[in-house]
Amino acid sequence: MSGLSRDVEADRRARAALTRVFEPGDERGGRWIREVGPSELVRRLMGEGGPAQPLKGMTAQRLAACRLRVAAADPARDLAEVAAAGGRFVCPGDTEWPSQLDDLGDARPIGLWVRGGPDLRLWALRSVALVGARACTPYGAHMAATLGAGLAERGWVVVSGAAFGVDGAAHRGALAVGGATMAVLACGVDVAYPKGHTELIGRIVEQGLVMGELPPSEHPTRSRFILRNRVIAALTRGTVVVEAQYRSGSLVTARNAQRLGRFTMGVPGPATSGLSAGVHELLRGEGVLVTDAAEIAELVGEIGDLAPVRRGPVLPRDLLDDLAARILDALPWSGLVSGRDVARAAGTSTDQALGRLYELHSLGFVESVGDGWRLTPVPPSDADTRRGGA
Amino acid sequence: MSGLSRDVEADRRARAALTRVFEPGDERGGRWIREVGPSELVRRLMGEGGPAQPLKGMTAQRLAACRLRVAAADPARDLAEVAAAGGRFVCPGDTEWPSQLDDLGDARPIGLWVRGGPDLRLWALRSVALVGARACTPYGAHMAATLGAGLAERGWVVVSGAAFGVDGAAHRGALAVGGATMAVLACGVDVAYPKGHTELIGRIVEQGLVMGELPPSEHPTRSRFILRNRVIAALTRGTVVVEAQYRSGSLVTARNAQRLGRFTMGVPGPATSGLSAGVHELLRGEGVLVTDAAEIAELVGEIGDLAPVRRGPVLPRDLLDDLAARILDALPWSGLVSGRDVARAAGTSTDQALGRLYELHSLGFVESVGDGWRLTPVPPSDADTRRGGA
Question: What's the pTM value of the predicted model, to 2 decimals?
Answer without folding.
Answer: 0.75
